[in-house]
Design brief:
The chain has helices at 12-23, 35-45, 53-57, 70-77, 83-86, 101-113, 126-132, 143-153, 168-196, 201-208, 216-227, 236-253, 258-272, 283-289; strands at residues 4-8, 27-31, 48-49, 62-65, 92-95, 117-120, 123-124, 135-139, 157-162. By secondary structure, it is an alpha/beta fold. It has a six-stranded parallel beta sheet with strand order 3-2-1-4-5-6, with helices on both faces. Strand 8 (135-139), helix 8 (143-153) and strand 9 form a beta-alpha-beta unit. Helix 9 packs across helix 12 (236-253). The longest helix has 29 residues, at 168-196. It is globular, with a radius of gyration of 20 Å. The protein starts with a strand and ends with a helix.
């Protein structure tokens, strides 16, 4: 079954997700704050583009968005030119951005006032997952809205799960980022140690990846770490934004996140090296810059 869909935000993630919706046969209208990007998308993939989020969302059954942060979400959803101003009762808003749980709950309340459904549904899997349609979706909201969205999610995700009421998807994404940060720091330290111990670090990875140390990050990021090549992937700036959400939520719920706070500081050091747009595997760069005793 195909749907009339609006997609707001055509960055690295959103552009690939929207492209897969077009390829799946959905009737797709797009909006991007940089209009040239929306025009390029239509020329390459098809669909239609509109000059505002409200115009893109006006007749859509589902309005999906994937943008950078809380302020960006508010800009395309709320206000006179935002999507909610034009959405019809019975439509469904799905936010694939990674935001605070507070914003997700706020959007759910605002959507309910207009008789519009709402899911906070951040994704994991990166650019490759968006291109290949293998993303994982963590959702918060009502079951009926989740079941309605699942056939659309199938265009770009291999797994989607409802985890609770509004905000639950964003909280789960915080767990995801906490776990990734710790694994990446451990991988960076392990490879750094291997290099200084005189080992062939690639050979070490080859053997330990067959055992209990194996992880997605080891498989997909060890080569970048060893090559000192980070001009790709999920940016440090975005990871610090995400970890900031987790640390702020922890201050509210009492969770103790000492490792997360430490790795967040390490990412700040990477930013100071000029690596704000580097991939998150660049944690190893700060180790190589430290004095050796």
């Amino acid at each position: 079954m195909t749907e009339k869909v609006a997609f707001l935000g055509l960055g690295v993630m959103g552009g690939n997700m929207a492209a897969r919706l077009v390829k799946a046969g959905h009737d797709v209208t797009v909006f991007n704050r940089t209009a040239a990007r929306a025009q390029e998308f239509v020329a390459m993939y098809g669909g239609r583009e509109q000059p505002s989020a409200a115009e893109a969302a006006r007749d859509a059954q589902l309005v999906l968005l994937c943008v950078g942060n809380d302020d960006h979400v508010r800009a395309v959803v709320l206000g006179p030119e935002g999507a909610l101003a034009a959405m019809q009762p019975g439509a469904l808003l799905v936010d694939h951005s990674t935001t605070s749980a507070e914003l997700a709950r706020e959007l759910a309340r605002e959507a309910a006032k207009r008789q519009v459904g709402m899911l906070d549904a951040p994704v994991s899997g990166g650019q490759h997952g968006a291109e290949q349609g293998t993303l994982t979706i963590m959702a918060g909201g009502q079951l009926e809205h989740f079941e309605r969205a699942k056939p659309v999610f199938a265009a770009y995700a291999k797994h989607a799960q409802l985890l609770g009421p509004a905000g639950s998807g964003q909280l789960a994404k915080m767990v995801n980022q906490i776990c990734i940060a710790g694994v990446l720091q451990g991988l960076a330290e392990g490879l750094h140690f291997a290099e200084l111990a005189g080992l062939d670090a690639a050979a070490v990875v080859d053997v330990i990846s067959k055992g209990a140390a194996q992880s997605w990050q080891m498989e997909h990021r060890h080569q970048a770490m060893l090559a000192d090549h980070f001009d790709f992937g999920f940016a440090v700036d975005w990871m610090r934004k995400d970890l900031g959400f987790a640390l702020a939520e922890a201050r509210r719920n009492g969770a103790r996140l000492p490792l997360t706070a430490l790795v967040d500081q390490f990412y700040a050091e990477v930013q100071a090296l000029g690596g704000g747009r580097w991939d998150t595997s660049s944690l190893i760069a700060r180790l190589r810059c430290e004095p050796r005793h």
